[in-house]
Design brief:
One of its GO terms (cellular component) is protein-DNA complex. By secondary structure, the protein is an alpha/beta fold. It contains 9 helices and 12 strands. Helix 5 packs across helix 9 (274-288). It starts with a helix and ends with a helix.
Length: 289
Amino acid sequence: MDLRVLEYFLMTAEEGSITHAAELLHVSQPTVSRQLMDLERELGKTLFIRTKKNVSLTKDGLLFRETAREILALYQKAVREDTGAAELSGELYLGMGETGSVQFLAQEIAAFQKLYPGVHFHLISENADRICEDIEKGLLDAGLVMRNVNPSTFEILELGLTETWGVLVPEGHPLAKEPEVSSKLLRQERLILPENTVFKQELLQWLGAGAESRVGATYNLIFNAFPLARASGALIVCLGVPGERQEGRVFLPFSRKKTASASFIWKKKPVQSPALEAFLEHITHAVSE
């Protein structure tokens, strides 16, 4: 049995579509279809229920899926051990927002590259919604997000890091000396909010009547919000750590405490690249220490 056939089987089972699986595997649809039928003949079992639009696993297919996963996992582990650390190479695309939790990820990337210098990282700055979307599309391998995600779609590693919602206030601003800010203190302030639909609605309710009219803009990357904030005098709503300073501004938490937890996520797939598999093992170990 060719290991590629196991990859075809697992990807088709994951996607529920031979056509979609073929696209992700970069092979033709007839090739995947033919290989799956050959696999069923070899095993003497029907693994898929086929309809015009999709496929689903039979009882035998569900049982074989676990066997296939174990075989590929053992093979990948053996390849990594036989290849050796110095020879492991690959390209990893990671999405991340502009949050303090990125520092942890940066430290682990640096430590990982000392062990595996042949692995090259592409760091893509995006908001959480876009990170999830791009991981699902296969444009990103994994990402760091500060929100809950669908556990049926993603594998989730909680990093044990939390940040607080609040505002960045100019150091000379009357509010800068406050330990925290209430909705009452913000009623006369212009605001720049992150592109986070759920949080935005919750925040507007907390700020009270007329709050939406005081939101001058939204941003997906906070770097782009600073020039507008300087020009307009608006305060930037973001995640941060009380007392931290950025661009001549001090972070003040909201009096109504609201935090966000950092998670490292990747798509649930039967097969990961050797480079990603190794990095996942590394970061999981770092979190557990």
